[in-house]
């Protein structure tokens, strides 16, 4: 009737440090929808030292987490296309990426993931679970849940990999193609200042893409998900908490006003 999330109980000395850190991080995130699926529950588990979670709550957490993660993959792809049009076809940009098109792309990124994720979540939680009900993780993710399932889960593993290819590999390849054309176009510029400005426009997005897709690929496309143990937890912490925390910092560092304010603050602290 329920699972028990092991979380970080195998590292008891870190409980209070983790609780304090994650609590502070939760207040500073702009991507609150994404991390709210994970952090409040994790804070409660660390505080109470209990990880009990019903099957329905576990399925709900997994469904929303995958939905938001898939949407972020698609939105990062849309952003890469936006930069491609802006740099490679600047004269066509107002027509190609007008307000209506942007709204349609954003809505499509949200809608496409919903039926796929709901179907995958239902397929996983219709499996029989036997033996231990302890999930060696801090939230309900696919690899540790499949580890508890009984019987033949070959079809489920194939489904997970197919969905991962659709929402991780394909978007990443599209982003790579977009940036390949962007870099080729930038290198043709004669002005060094123009090259620097074009690269700075893409740098923040490219950093987020590498961090997010890299962690997602390791998690969902690894050949042996049953080996998902401590390393899996660390990778999950990376893309569920660290990356959303870094995103505002990465993007705002491109803002000149922010940089000027930071320099002034640093100068005041040093004097």
Automatic annotation (TrEMBL):
Keyword Transmembrane belongs to the record: yes
Major site of localization recorded for this protein: membrane
A Pfam family annotated for this UniProt entry: 7tm_4
Residues of the G-protein coupled receptors family 1 profile domain: 1-251
Membrane topology classification: Multi-pass membrane protein
GO molecular function, one term: G protein-coupled receptor activity
Top-level lineage group: Eukaryota
Function: Odorant receptor.
Keywords for the protein's UniProt record, in alphabetical order: Cell membrane, G-protein coupled receptor, Membrane, Olfaction, Receptor, Sensory transduction, Transducer, Transmembrane, Transmembrane helix
Protein family (similarity comment): Belongs to the G-protein coupled receptor 1 family.
The UniProt record lists the keyword Transmembrane: yes
Segments traversing the membrane: 16-43, 55-81, 101-118, 158-177, 198-222, 234-253
Any Gene Ontology CC annotation: plasma membrane
Name of the protein described by the UniProt record: Olfactory receptor
Compartmental location: Cell membrane
UniProt lineage: Eukaryota, Metazoa, Chordata, Craniata, Vertebrata
């Amino acid at each position: 009737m329920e699972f028990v999330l092991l979380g970080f109980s195998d590292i008891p000395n870190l409980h209070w440090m983790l609780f304090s850190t994650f609590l502070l991080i939760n207040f500073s995130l702009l991507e609150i929808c994404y991390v709210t699926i994970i952090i409040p529950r994790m804070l409660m588990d660390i505080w109470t030292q209990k990880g009990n979670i019903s099957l329905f709550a576990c399925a709900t957490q997994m469904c929303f987490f995958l939905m938001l993660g898939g949407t972020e993959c698609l939105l990062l792809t849309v952003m890469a296309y936006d930069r491609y049009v802006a740099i490679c076809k600047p004269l066509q940009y107002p027509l190609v990426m007008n307000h209506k098109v942007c709204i349609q792309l954003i809505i499509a990124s949200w809608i496409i993931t919903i039926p796929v994720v709901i179907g995958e979540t239902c397929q996983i939680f219709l499996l029989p679970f036997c033996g231990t009900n302890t999930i060696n993780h801090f939230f309900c993710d696919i690899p540790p849940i499949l580890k508890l399932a009984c019987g033949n889960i070959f079809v489920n593993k194939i489904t997970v990999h197919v969905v991962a290819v659709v929402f991780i590999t394909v978007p990443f390849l599209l982003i790579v193609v977009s940036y390949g054309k962007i870099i080729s176009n930038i290198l043709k510029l004669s002005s060094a200042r123009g090259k620097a400005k074009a690269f700075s426009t893409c740098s923040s997005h490219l950093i987020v893409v590498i961090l997010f897709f890299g962690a997602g690929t390791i998690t969902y496309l690894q050949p042996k998900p049953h080996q998902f143990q401590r390393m899996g937890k660390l990778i999950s912490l990376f893309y569920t908490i660290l990356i959303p925390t870094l995103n505002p910092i990465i993007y705002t560092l491109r803002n000149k006003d922010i940089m000027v304010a930071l320099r002034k603050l640093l100068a005041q602290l040093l004097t």
